């Protein structure tokens, strides 16, 4: 918690993260005089954010009344991937009450995708999950102007440039909405309830269809002036490499990502250099990044090489970032995190070898704990922070 946060935001976050607390505990934790706390609680009860929750255990003398977030609070968390939609409706404690996941192509455009999101949310309402939403958090797989709530020139999202996502969602559901890029929401999720719990300086690297990096500095997401900080997938690692979706040559993403790995796997399967992949190609008619993972697990030399080569490339970019930002942790997430320890070992070895010893002396490089839920978990945190800020 930051002392800069208004009192009501700190109070509501405390109830969100800790559950029901007595008035006495709240006064202690927030270091504030009892009368001021009671006045604030009364205001938040009237606004519908807080409710009484029975009596606390006695601390000697009269038993204090417990206070909790109103059980009916509901936030919607939406994580849009290049090929998927994940939606959760959560309560004030950010516990999922309903979850929906399905395949979808982000290239089908904002109207079709957002209409589907609305249908899933209305299904939740029909099923009695909520009466009304208090806020919606959305992550999208491309650069976002956080201030304006719109995607900006996203390379893999044709038709989404400057589309008023936040405005339309707010209007549709009658509550505030917040839009961020998918990697930032994953980083927020991981910090709130994952392996980076309460770590103030860390990098969250998403390796999936594309590659991106969420940057936490001094306990805050660092988004940059225009919201595109952390777009490490478009750092050039080989000037003679393949052309990337952004139009430049040899970007990290063009050399190692879900799409790039599937392409290399296909070549290895066709040429027969990888028996495991050739076998899968014959059986399925195609091969994916996950087939490379399975092949590596069976000891297929080419599959292991492909993963190690990718890990080396990611590691070389991260080594520069480590020397630059000096984080206390690096978390690897996204679909290709399923490549697991071969990938992790390679990234670690390059980062440790190439960064300054002082920066890596105590630098864990670990896999995401939340896995595929990191995105919706972070979108829920953002939605709740937005709603709490509006309780002024």
From TrEMBL:
Origin: domain of life: Bacteria
UniProt lineage: Bacteria, Bacillati, Actinomycetota, Actinomycetes, Micromonosporales
Matches recorded under Gene3D superfamilies: 3.30.420.40, Winged helix-like DNA-binding domain superfamily/Winged helix DNA-binding domain (1.10.10.10)
Keywords: Kinase, Transferase
Organism: Micromonospora sonchi
Protein family according to the UniProt entry: Belongs to the ROK (NagC/XylR) family.
Name of the featured protein: Sugar kinase
InterPro entries: ATPase_NBD, ROK, ROK_cs, WH-like_DNA-bd_sf, WH_DNA-bd_sf
PANTHER family cross-referenced by the UniProt entry: GLUCOKINASE (PTHR18964:SF173), ROK (REPRESSOR, ORF, KINASE) FAMILY (PTHR18964)
Keyword Transmembrane attributed: no
